[in-house]
Amino acid sequence: MPRLFTALEIPAEVASTLTLHRGGLVGARWIDPSDYHITLRFLGDVDRRTANELDAFLGDIRSYPFEVTLDEIGSFGGDKPRAVFARVQPNAKLSELQADLERLMRRLGLPPEGRKFVPHVTLARLRDTSPLDVADYLGLHPIIRPITFTARRLALMSSRDSVGGGPYVLEAAYALGPSYPNRMARGEFQRR
How far is CA 20 from CA 6, 69, 86, 123, 155, in A? Predict the structure, then answer.
C-alpha cells in the first residue's frame, strides 16, 4: 500500500539547478531530480475511505501562490549524517499552509505529526558517510545565490514503503489560488 504525504512540487528549472550539487560525497544515494519536493505533512498508510476524505478536504484548502526560496545546502543527522538537503528560507505563508494541513489531518482523525516542520528539499540519503566527509562536501556546495520560485499547487503524493527517496507518484494536485473547488485531478482516489 502506498504511503501518502502532502508536498510542494519543485519546478523543473529549479530541480535542474539543484542537480549541480550532486556528486562528490561517499555513501550518498542521490535523489532523482523528478522526485524533488518539499514535504508539508507525512500521512503514512491510510485506508481508501480516509484517502478519499483527505482528497475532498484538500480541494477546500484556501491558500494563494507564494514565493519559496532555497538558500543553502545542509545536512541532517549530526554525528550520524543521514541526508543532505537544500534549506527553505523561513516563510510565513508556507508555515500557515503547513499549519492548515496539520489541523486538517487532526480533523480526519490522524495522529499529530511527531516531528518539527523543517522545510527542505532532500538531495541525497546518506549511508555510512562520515561527518567529516559531509562537512567537506558542504564547504564545497553552498548555494551562493538563493533560488526562488512560486509555489502554485499543493500535491498529494505517494511512495513505496522503502528506505525513502522515491520514486514518488503524484496522486492529485490542488491549485493554490482564488478559484474553488481547486481539484486538478478528478474521480475517486485510486490507490496504485
Answer: 26, 17, 12, 11, 25
